[in-house]
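EI: anyone free to look at a 212-residue chain?
SC: sure, send it
EI:
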Amino acid sequence: MVMKKISIKKLYKKFKTEEVLKGVNVEFESGKIYGIMGLNGSGKSVLFKIMCGFYMPSSGEVLFDGKSYLRNNEYPPNTRALIERPTFIPELSGFENLELLASIQNKTSKKQINSSIEIVNLSNEKNKKYKDYSLGMKQKLGIAQAIMDNPDVLILDEPFNGIDKDSVKKIIDYLKSIKNDKIIIVSSHISDDLNNLCDKIFVLNNGKLNDE
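SC: here you go
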């Protein structure tokens, strides 16, 4: 079943004395690409980690088609994310790392892995060891792992860091081509990246999420 809507209601997150999120209310619907603009440290990654169940909120809720997966400490279904810097096994190649991840659920073929590698312009480096990857190559591999399972919900946190312009354009074109039956949410501190990609952009500032 395709995910239709994510609803975030009165979401607060506090770390000791620092309140990072202050009553975030927003809805994301399938068929659109959403951007979240904010400076580094504004709380974008914290919001995404809560959505994925990596952090519990101080209060508030995140509902996927009306259901809260946080309450049961579950990862939301058919959701993939790239949050902060990706990490993989240094001694394995890019392809081998994706193949290992795909083996966990055993539903992604080698053809799909190679397709995701091609989409991010990493085919020429797929057999290099991860430890020899540049920052941009690591980012590309992170995006490839997020898209290879064809998820219903795709969350990308600052995905274009260190990636060349031609590859960014190719990835943006791909995301636009698949958006109709997906919820895609992308964060960045660079407005041009989001303006070229998103149907709607929000700004996260001082713990609150507002329309651009």
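EI: Residues 112 and 148 are 6 Å apart (CA to CA).
SC: 👍
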